[in-house]
Structures
1.
Amino acid sequence: MTALALHDFSDFLLRLYRLAYESSIETFQDAALGLVKPLIAFDASMWGTATTDRDGIDVRTLHLHQKTPEMMRATPAVPERAQTVSRGRPHAA
C-alpha cells in the first residue's frame, strides 16, 4: 500500500469513527453508507445482521439504504444457482 493510499484509508476510518460517535443509532447506517458511496459506486444497499444454522440464514436486522420495501417485494426470487452461505462458506444452492 502506498503512503497516499494508507493516508486515504486512515482518513476514511477516522471519518467513519467520527460518524459513529456523532450520529444517532437511527442515522449512522445511512451516514456510513454515504461515506462509502464515493469509494464504491452503488445505487442502493441492504445492511443486515444474520446468523446461520443447519436450516439456513436467520436475518436479525435489515437496513434498506435508498431501497424501499416495495422494491424488495418486486425483486425476483433468488435463482436456484445463486450463492448461499452455510457455516461461513459460500456454496452453490
Note: Residues 43-76 form one domain.
2.
Amino acid sequence: MRVLFVLPKRFHFDKNLLAKYTVWGETFDYVRRRCDVEAELLDCDLGWVTQRHLIEQLVTRHHDVVVIWSASVADVPASLEVCQLVKELSPETKVMAYGDGPIYAAKLFRHAEFDAIFSDGDPEFAIASYLRHVSNPSSCGGAGRRVANVELLVDGQYVAPGPPELTPPDQWGFPPIDALPIDEYQAYYRNKYSHEKRLYPADVLSVTVSRGCTYRCHYCPTPLREGRKDRRRPVDQLVGWLEGVAERFSQVHLSSPIFTGDPLWVHEFCRALLDRAIQLQWRTTVRVDQLDEPLVKLMAEAGCKTLLFGVETLYSERPEAAEKADVGQLTAVSALLRRYGVRGKAFVMLGMPGQLRADILHTIATLRSMDLVVRPSGYTPLHHLHKMTVEELLQADLEQYDKKSFYNPATGLSKREFFQLLLRNDPEER
C-alpha cells in the first residue's frame, strides 16, 4: 500500500515549523513503523513546492491513500481543494484528513465527501486503523465496520467511530529526520525575511514530550485534540533519543501542553540529562503557578533556556480577574527566570470576551516591564464553529481562524493598532 501525507499550501501570517516535526512528522513516523506501507511526505507549504509537484504525484504515481494534515481551521479551504484535486485526478485513491481542521469543521469535510475524517483519540492510531481497513476490510468485519477514531464514509453515509483509542506514549513516533525536508526548514529560519529567524536558531528541532491537558480553556484545541489526561513519554526513551540528535541540533523545543504538569517526571528528566552530560539547549511550555525556585534552578542546570507560558490578559481596572496569572505571581516568576538565566515568553490574547483596549495595552506594558518576551495573538473563537451550518462555514473566512491574526474590533483597538502589536519586535528570544 502506498500512502502520501500532504500538508496543503496557504498564505500564512506566521509559519509554525515546529508542529511539522511533531503533529505531522511523528504521526508519519508511527504509521511507517507500524503499518505495512510505503509512505511519503509532501510539504506543499515549502516555498519552492508548486501545484505541479502535487499533480505529478497524483498523475504519475499510484497512491492508495492520501492523508491530508489540516493543521488548523485556516488550512481547511486548502485541504478541501487538495481533496477535490485528488478525486478528479486519481478517483481510486482514498482521501483522509486529520488535524484541527476536521476537529472544528467536520461538517465541511463531510460535505466534501472525504473517505475518512479524524474524529478524536490519537491521530496516528486513527490513520493506522484506517489504512488497515483499506488494506483488508473483510478481515476487520466488513465495509461497514467502525474504525477507531475515524468517521468512515460507507455507501454515501458516515459511520461514527467507536470509543476513542489512544496510543501508548512509548509507541509515539519521533520526528523522522531522514524523511522531513530538514534543510529547507533550516533555510527558512536563516532567511533574512523570516520573522522566526530572531526567535530560533536555524537548527532548532521539536519533539513531543507529553499530550493532554486537564485545564478547560474554552479557546484551546488541546483537550479536543489530545484529551484531558496528562500522558508522557518514558524518560529513558526520550533522553536516549535526545542524546542521539544533540550533535546535529543545538536547541530542541519540548512540545507539551504543560511541561510542569508532572513535577516528578520533570525532576527525573532533568536529572537524566545532567547524569548523561547531554549538552543541549531546550525550551518548553509551562504554567506560572507551577514554578518554584528549586524547579526553575534544576531546569536551567539541565539546559532550559526559554520557558513559555500563557497569561492571555490582565485587567487594568480588575486585577483580580487575571486570566491565568496575577501580577504578583508574574513578578516573582520573572525574577526567578532572570536569576537563573532563563528567558520568559508570555502568550497574550487580543480580543478576548470583555477585554478592552486599555486592558490589552496594560497587559503588554506590564509584562515588558518584567523583561518578559511578549507574544500577542488574536483571540480566535474556534468553539463557535461547531454551531455553524455547512452554508455558514462555506461563507465564513476560515483563513482568519489561524490562532494568530483574528481581529475583534469590539476591544476598541483599530485594525492597524492590532497588527502593530502583533508585529512589534521584542528582544531576541534565542
Note: The longest strand covers residues 304-312.
3.
Amino acid sequence: MARIAAQTGRTTSVRSSTSTIFGNAMTGSAILVPNASIAAAGRLLEREKTFSDRPPGAAFWYENSNGLAEIAVNQGRADRDLAIGIPVEIVS
C-alpha cells in the first residue's frame, strides 16, 4: 500500500485514476492549507497551478476542477512513475 502524507489533519482513502489515460492519483479530498505539500512515494510534492509550471517528468499536486487535490507527473503517469496504487492513504 502506498502512503501519501498531507497537511490535512485527517485520514482518507484515495483512488488512482487508472481508468483514465492520464494515470493521475485523485485524492477525493480538498486540502484547505493554501500552500500545503504532499509527501508521496518518498517525495515531497509541491502544489502547482498548471502542468507547465513543472519540468517534464516532475511530480506535483494541483487542485482539480472539482476542488480536490490530484497528484500528477508532467508528461508522465503518477500511478506508474510514483508507484501509487490502490488503496492509497492520506495521513497527517
Note: The beta strands are 2-6, 12-16, 25-26, 38-40, 43-45, 59-63, 69-73, 88-91.
4.
Amino acid sequence: MRSSAWWCCTSAEAPRDAVLAAASPECCKKHGLASQAGFALLSVLWFTFAVAGYRAVRQGRHDDRREWMVRVFALTLAGVTLRILIPLLTVLLLPLLEPVYGGDEDRYFLEIYQAIAWLCWVPNLIAAEWFLRRYRTTRSSRWTSSRS
C-alpha cells in the first residue's frame, strides 16, 4: 500500500499549484475572478476530500473512505466535463454572439468560461452526493431487512 500513499503525497502538489495560479493577478485579468474562484475552490475541495479519504483508510474506516473517494472521483471528472461543456456551450450559445455581445468573441467566450468554471464540477459533486445518499439508503435497508 505504499504506492497509494506515495500517489496521495505527490498529487497534493497539483491542487496547491492550481490555487497559487488562481490567486495570481494576471490570471484574474485574463479569465475573470469568477472562474478563478471556481477553479480554486475545486482544487481546495479535491485536496480536502483526498486527505479525508486517506485518513479514513488509515484509521480503518473503509466505508467512509469509499464515500470520500467517490467525491474525489466526481471532482476529478471536472476536467472531462470542462472539455465537453466548452464546445457544447460555445455552439449552443452562438446565436447570442451578435445580439447580446455585439460580435465581441472575447467577451462571449469569457462569460462562457466563467460559467463553465463552476458547471464543470458542481453538478458532478451534486450527482456524487445523490449517489451516496441513494447508496446509503439502499445499503441500510438491505441491512435491516436481512436482520428481520
Note: Confidence is low (pLDDT under 50) at residues 1-12.
